[in-house]
Amino acid sequence: MPSLMTLRTLATAVTLVAATPLTVAPASAETRPVVQTVLDETVAAGIPGMVAEVRDSGRRTFAAAGVADTQSGRRRMPQERFRVGSITKAFTATLVLQLAAERKLSLDDTVQTWLPGLVTGNGNDGSKITIRQLLNQTSGLYNMYLDEKMLDKYSGPGFLEHRFDHVNPEELIAVAMAYPPYFAPGTAFRYSNANYDLAGMIIEKATGTTYAEQLAGRIARPLGLSGTYLPGKETRIRGPHPRHYSTLWSADPDAKTYDVTEQNASYAWAAGGVVSTTGDLSRFLTALHDGTLLPPAQQKEIWNTTISTEGSAWIPGTRYGMGTWQQQLSCGQTVWGMGGAINGSYTYAMGSRDGKHTIVTNMNGDWNNPIAALTKAVETEFCPTATR
User: Fold this and answer.
1) Which of 60, 227, 231, 355 could form a disulfide with 22 if both were Cys (CB 3.0 to 4.6 A apart)?
2) Closest by alpha carbon to 15, among 102, 92, 131?
3) Taking a C-beta distance cutoff of 8 angstroms, is the pair 6, 372 a contact?
4) Given this model, what pLDDT does residue 30 score?
5) pLDDT confidence of 1, banded at 50, 70, 90?
6) What is the predicted pLDDT for the residue at 20?
7) Separation CA 342–CA 321 (nearest Å)
């Protein structure tokens, strides 16, 4: 998502091992009945469709409710690709940390070192902001999606007119630079998509290639994530996918729903532009936990969830890492993962600390408090007694 979980909600809120084949079981009353109930309830409340993929002890279970297409009635399927929003940030952080492990950059490097003259003006100073502070959201940089024009263009009625516009990251950062920082770098937590667009630009500067090429070469191909990619200027989603439906964040309970599947997601880019699948996200999450993608020092960094999010426009009961976070559930269990939203799509990918037990959920609608439904699905999986 350009901001986790929505532009309005949370914006105002290497050695690689091959994946182990898993047994695929259809959703049924004998597999994940409580999770299925959450999906059914969410669809009954008005969301077009919702899916959940659970991996536990080497077994993969997929459950679905509702439809991928309200016109044809086509049902949702395991192989579908969808826009994952701010889960993109976990991919971005992983790429930066891989480069740090290879000593192509340091997390203590300043933004000014890599992007001279870009972060300046109105009290912003790239020479005082480190790459680490970008990744753990402590830079203090303004979240450009809170700009009124940006809100209208990309999360309000204006989106219908601008949905195919292409915007480059420099333009996005320029909007953030029009505002003073929230606080001095390193002194607090504040979620800002500017942080991850800057990180994406640093990846390109350090490698001499595009973010999309780095994502494919370092993560997607080695892990076998065949449905994961950054669209770039493409407006259509490749391969099988659900339609993405949006009310454009309207507060009106009777708001009109729009099909926003086709869009130029360059406005989200390294902060929220990636497309993926439930299976790919589950494999990626496990690889972040088991050390497949990052050496020990960098793996510790990405899961160093010591940054308190309390008092910020963020999900309660969480602590932030680098594009990742931990969340304490109502039963006292703690899960680790990531989530994201973009117009028409909400996604959660959470799991146990060792990555052996994960749940990835997605809904192809962005209204009716999606975060609550996604969290409930996670709770039914990790707190089954309490939820029953």
Assistant:
1) 60
2) 102
3) no
4) 39
5) very low
6) 29
7) 21
CB 365 within 8 A of CB 336: no
Using CA atoms, how far apart are residues 40 and 249, in angstroms rounded to an integer?
23
b/e per residue 12-21 (b: at least 16 CB within 10 A): ebbeeeebee
Alpha-carbon torsion (350, 351, 356, 362), positive or negative:
negative
One-letter amino acid at 367 equals W
C-alpha to C-alpha distance for 179 and 143, rounded to whole angstroms: 9
- Whether 192 is catalytic: no
268: nearest Cα among 143, 365, 177, 124: 143
Whole-model pTM?
Answer: 0.92
Domain ranges of the chain: 23-387
Better-scored residue on pLDDT, 8 or 176: 176
List all residues 6 or more positions away from 264 whose beta carbon is below 8 Å from its beta carbon: 163, 164, 165, 166, 233, 235
Q: Residue 343: what pLDDT?
A: 96
What is the pLDDT averaged over residues 267-287?
98
- pLDDT tens column, 184-193: 999 999 999 9
- The verdict on domain 23-387 having CATH code 3.40.710.10 is yes
Does residue 25 have a pLDDT over 90?
no
Residue from 3, 28, 57, 86 carrying the catalytic annotation: 86
Average pLDDT over residues 192-197: 98
CA distance 324 to 320: 6
Q: How far apart are CA 198 and CA 119, in angstroms?
A: 9
